[in-house]
Amino acid sequence: MEIVVFFSLFLLVCSVSTNQTEADNEIVEQQISNQQPCPQDLHAVLRELTVSVAVQKEQIANLQKENQDHLTKLKELDRHETELDRQKTEIDQLKQQLQDKQVAFSTSLLDKSTGNIGPFNIDTTLIFKQVFINIGNAYNKHTGIFTAPVRGAYHFECHVYGRADIMTRVALFKNGERIFIILELQPSHFWTSSNGASLLLEAGDHIFLRLSADARVRDSEGHHTTFSGHLLFTM
Protein backbone atom coordinates (compact mmCIF):
# COMPACT_ATOMS: atom_id res chain seq x y z
CA MET A 1 0.00 0.00 0.00
CA GLU A 2 2.78 2.48 0.90
CA ILE A 3 4.57 1.64 -2.36
CA VAL A 4 1.54 2.53 -4.45
CA VAL A 5 1.13 5.86 -2.69
CA PHE A 6 4.79 6.79 -3.19
CA PHE A 7 4.71 5.96 -6.86
CA SER A 8 1.58 8.07 -7.33
CA LEU A 9 3.26 11.03 -5.64
CA PHE A 10 6.32 10.65 -7.88
CA LEU A 11 4.24 10.74 -11.03
CA LEU A 12 2.45 13.84 -9.80
CA VAL A 13 5.71 15.71 -9.17
CA CYS A 14 7.08 14.82 -12.61
CA SER A 15 3.90 16.00 -14.25
CA VAL A 16 4.00 19.34 -12.47
CA SER A 17 7.70 19.82 -13.34
CA THR A 18 7.10 19.09 -17.01
CA ASN A 19 4.20 21.50 -17.22
CA GLN A 20 6.27 24.24 -15.52
CA THR A 21 9.15 23.76 -17.98
CA GLU A 22 6.84 24.02 -20.99
CA ALA A 23 5.28 27.18 -19.56
CA ASP A 24 8.69 28.73 -19.04
CA ASN A 25 9.70 27.89 -22.61
CA GLU A 26 6.55 29.51 -23.98
CA ILE A 27 7.30 32.72 -21.99
CA VAL A 28 10.90 32.86 -23.31
CA GLU A 29 9.76 32.30 -26.90
CA GLN A 30 7.16 35.07 -26.53
CA GLN A 31 9.82 37.49 -25.26
CA ILE A 32 12.16 36.64 -28.14
CA SER A 33 9.28 37.05 -30.55
CA ASN A 34 8.49 40.48 -29.09
CA GLN A 35 12.16 41.62 -29.38
CA GLN A 36 12.67 40.65 -33.05
CA PRO A 37 10.93 42.80 -35.69
CA CYS A 38 8.80 41.13 -38.22
CA PRO A 39 9.73 41.08 -41.94
CA GLN A 40 7.14 43.80 -42.68
CA ASP A 41 8.93 46.21 -40.28
CA LEU A 42 12.34 45.50 -41.86
CA HIS A 43 11.00 46.33 -45.32
CA ALA A 44 9.57 49.60 -44.02
CA VAL A 45 12.90 50.59 -42.47
CA LEU A 46 14.74 49.75 -45.70
CA ARG A 47 12.29 51.83 -47.70
CA GLU A 48 12.79 54.81 -45.38
CA LEU A 49 16.58 54.44 -45.64
CA THR A 50 16.37 54.22 -49.43
CA VAL A 51 14.26 57.38 -49.62
CA SER A 52 16.61 59.20 -47.21
CA VAL A 53 19.67 58.20 -49.25
CA ALA A 54 17.96 59.34 -52.47
CA VAL A 55 17.11 62.73 -50.90
CA GLN A 56 20.66 63.15 -49.66
CA LYS A 57 22.04 62.27 -53.10
CA GLU A 58 19.78 64.86 -54.67
CA GLN A 59 20.88 67.46 -52.14
CA ILE A 60 24.53 66.62 -52.78
CA ALA A 61 23.95 66.87 -56.54
CA ASN A 62 22.29 70.29 -56.08
CA LEU A 63 25.17 71.50 -53.91
CA GLN A 64 27.69 70.27 -56.48
CA LYS A 65 25.81 72.09 -59.23
CA GLU A 66 25.67 75.30 -57.17
CA ASN A 67 29.38 74.96 -56.46
CA GLN A 68 30.10 74.49 -60.16
CA ASP A 69 27.96 77.52 -60.97
CA HIS A 70 29.93 79.58 -58.44
CA LEU A 71 33.21 78.39 -59.93
CA THR A 72 31.98 79.30 -63.40
CA LYS A 73 30.98 82.77 -62.20
CA LEU A 74 34.35 83.23 -60.50
CA LYS A 75 36.16 82.24 -63.68
CA GLU A 76 33.98 84.66 -65.63
CA LEU A 77 34.75 87.44 -63.15
CA ASP A 78 38.46 86.67 -63.41
CA ARG A 79 38.21 86.79 -67.18
CA HIS A 80 36.42 90.15 -67.05
CA GLU A 81 39.00 91.49 -64.60
CA THR A 82 41.82 90.34 -66.86
CA GLU A 83 40.09 91.94 -69.83
CA LEU A 84 39.62 95.20 -67.91
CA ASP A 85 43.30 95.20 -66.92
CA ARG A 86 44.28 94.65 -70.57
CA GLN A 87 42.02 97.45 -71.74
CA LYS A 88 43.37 99.77 -69.05
CA THR A 89 46.91 98.98 -70.13
CA GLU A 90 46.01 99.69 -73.76
CA ILE A 91 44.35 102.98 -72.77
CA ASP A 92 47.43 104.01 -70.76
CA GLN A 93 49.65 103.12 -73.72
CA LEU A 94 47.42 105.11 -76.09
CA LYS A 95 47.48 108.07 -73.72
CA GLN A 96 51.25 107.87 -73.53
CA GLN A 97 51.54 107.62 -77.30
CA LEU A 98 49.20 110.58 -77.68
CA GLN A 99 51.26 112.58 -75.21
CA ASP A 100 54.45 111.59 -77.02
CA LYS A 101 52.97 112.84 -80.30
CA GLN A 102 52.10 116.21 -78.76
CA VAL A 103 55.46 117.96 -78.75
CA ALA A 104 55.88 121.65 -79.51
CA PHE A 105 57.76 124.58 -78.01
CA SER A 106 58.31 128.25 -78.78
CA THR A 107 60.66 130.57 -76.88
CA SER A 108 62.25 133.99 -76.87
CA LEU A 109 65.82 134.78 -75.80
CA LEU A 110 64.98 137.39 -73.13
CA ASP A 111 61.92 137.40 -70.93
CA LYS A 112 60.96 141.08 -70.62
CA SER A 113 63.90 143.38 -71.13
CA THR A 114 65.85 144.59 -74.14
CA GLY A 115 69.55 143.72 -74.30
CA ASN A 116 72.49 141.95 -75.89
CA ILE A 117 73.95 138.49 -75.31
CA GLY A 118 77.67 138.34 -76.06
CA PRO A 119 80.27 138.64 -77.28
CA PHE A 120 82.07 135.88 -75.33
CA ASN A 121 85.54 134.41 -75.67
CA ILE A 122 84.15 130.94 -76.38
CA ASP A 123 81.15 129.44 -78.14
CA THR A 124 78.18 129.62 -75.76
CA THR A 125 74.88 127.75 -75.68
CA LEU A 126 71.98 130.20 -75.77
CA ILE A 127 69.33 129.82 -73.08
CA PHE A 128 65.95 131.10 -74.22
CA LYS A 129 64.30 132.29 -71.03
CA GLN A 130 60.84 133.33 -72.21
CA VAL A 131 58.77 130.20 -72.90
CA PHE A 132 55.53 130.78 -74.80
CA ILE A 133 54.57 127.13 -75.12
CA ASN A 134 56.22 123.86 -74.13
CA ILE A 135 53.85 120.97 -74.87
CA GLY A 136 55.47 117.72 -73.81
CA ASN A 137 58.06 119.57 -71.66
CA ALA A 138 60.83 118.60 -74.08
CA TYR A 139 62.50 122.02 -73.91
CA ASN A 140 64.52 122.83 -70.78
CA LYS A 141 64.46 126.58 -70.06
CA HIS A 142 67.33 126.20 -67.60
CA THR A 143 69.77 124.70 -70.10
CA GLY A 144 68.34 125.86 -73.46
CA ILE A 145 68.36 122.24 -74.71
CA PHE A 146 65.50 120.44 -76.45
CA THR A 147 65.47 116.66 -75.86
CA ALA A 148 63.47 114.50 -78.29
CA PRO A 149 61.02 112.31 -76.32
CA VAL A 150 60.36 109.87 -79.19
CA ARG A 151 61.86 108.85 -82.52
CA GLY A 152 60.38 110.96 -85.28
CA ALA A 153 60.64 113.85 -87.72
CA TYR A 154 60.92 117.29 -86.12
CA HIS A 155 61.03 120.82 -87.50
CA PHE A 156 63.01 123.68 -85.92
CA GLU A 157 63.21 127.39 -86.68
CA CYS A 158 65.38 130.16 -85.32
CA HIS A 159 65.09 133.95 -85.82
CA VAL A 160 67.85 136.23 -84.54
CA TYR A 161 68.11 140.00 -84.11
CA GLY A 162 71.40 141.88 -84.59
CA ARG A 163 72.94 145.32 -84.49
CA ALA A 164 75.57 147.02 -86.66
CA ASP A 165 79.36 146.66 -86.25
CA ILE A 166 79.32 143.26 -84.48
CA MET A 167 78.61 139.98 -86.27
CA THR A 168 75.62 137.84 -85.35
CA ARG A 169 76.48 134.16 -85.79
CA VAL A 170 74.26 131.44 -84.30
CA ALA A 171 74.38 127.73 -85.16
CA LEU A 172 71.87 124.94 -84.51
CA PHE A 173 73.37 121.70 -83.20
CA LYS A 174 72.06 118.15 -83.09
CA ASN A 175 74.02 116.58 -80.25
CA GLY A 176 77.58 117.52 -81.30
CA GLU A 177 76.77 117.96 -85.00
CA ARG A 178 76.25 121.45 -86.46
CA ILE A 179 73.17 121.52 -88.69
CA PHE A 180 72.90 125.13 -89.92
CA ILE A 181 74.24 128.64 -89.28
CA ILE A 182 72.57 132.04 -89.13
CA LEU A 183 75.14 134.68 -90.03
CA GLU A 184 74.59 138.42 -90.46
CA LEU A 185 76.83 141.54 -90.45
CA GLN A 186 75.68 145.00 -91.54
CA PRO A 187 77.55 148.29 -91.39
CA SER A 188 74.65 150.11 -89.77
CA HIS A 189 71.17 149.83 -88.28
CA PHE A 190 69.48 146.62 -86.97
CA TRP A 191 68.59 143.44 -88.82
CA THR A 192 66.95 140.06 -88.39
CA SER A 193 67.92 136.72 -89.93
CA SER A 194 66.43 133.25 -89.77
CA ASN A 195 66.92 129.64 -90.73
CA GLY A 196 65.21 126.30 -90.16
CA ALA A 197 65.45 122.57 -90.77
CA SER A 198 63.52 119.32 -90.44
CA LEU A 199 65.44 116.52 -88.75
CA LEU A 200 65.03 112.84 -88.00
CA LEU A 201 65.72 112.45 -84.28
CA GLU A 202 66.06 109.44 -82.05
CA ALA A 203 64.60 109.52 -78.57
CA GLY A 204 67.12 111.34 -76.36
CA ASP A 205 68.76 113.43 -79.11
CA HIS A 206 69.58 117.01 -78.10
CA ILE A 207 68.92 120.17 -80.12
CA PHE A 208 70.30 123.56 -79.07
CA LEU A 209 71.57 126.90 -80.42
CA ARG A 210 75.12 128.07 -79.87
CA LEU A 211 76.43 131.62 -80.19
CA SER A 212 79.88 131.74 -81.78
CA ALA A 213 82.80 133.37 -79.93
CA ASP A 214 83.15 137.12 -80.56
CA ALA A 215 79.58 137.27 -81.92
CA ARG A 216 76.54 138.94 -80.46
CA VAL A 217 72.77 138.48 -80.56
CA ARG A 218 70.12 140.91 -79.39
CA ASP A 219 66.54 140.65 -78.16
CA SER A 220 63.91 143.14 -77.14
CA GLU A 221 60.51 143.38 -75.56
CA GLY A 222 59.14 142.66 -79.02
CA HIS A 223 60.80 139.19 -78.90
CA HIS A 224 62.82 139.40 -82.11
CA THR A 225 65.11 136.44 -81.29
CA THR A 226 63.16 133.20 -81.03
CA PHE A 227 63.72 129.45 -81.07
CA SER A 228 60.82 127.07 -81.89
CA GLY A 229 60.25 123.47 -82.83
CA HIS A 230 57.63 120.72 -82.98
CA LEU A 231 57.18 117.05 -83.77
CA LEU A 232 55.89 116.42 -87.29
CA PHE A 233 55.23 112.69 -86.87
CA THR A 234 56.66 109.66 -85.05
CA MET A 235 58.58 106.91 -86.83
TrEMBL record:
Recorded hits in SUPFAM superfamilies, A to Z, give: TNF-like (SSF49842)
- Gene Ontology CC annotation, any one: extracellular region
Please name the SMART domains in this protein's record. C1Q
Q: What is its main location?
A: secreted
Mark the transmembrane ranges.
none
Cellular location of this protein?
A: Secreted
Q: Which UniProt keywords apply?
A: Coiled coil, Secreted, Signal
* Signal peptide limits: 1-23
Q: C1q domain location, by residue?
A: 98-235
Coiled coil stretches, renumbered:
46-104
Q: Which PANTHER family match?
A: CEREBELLIN 13-RELATED, CEREBELLIN-RELATED
According to UniProt, the name of this protein is C1q domain-containing protein
Q: Which organism is it from?
A: Oreochromis aureus
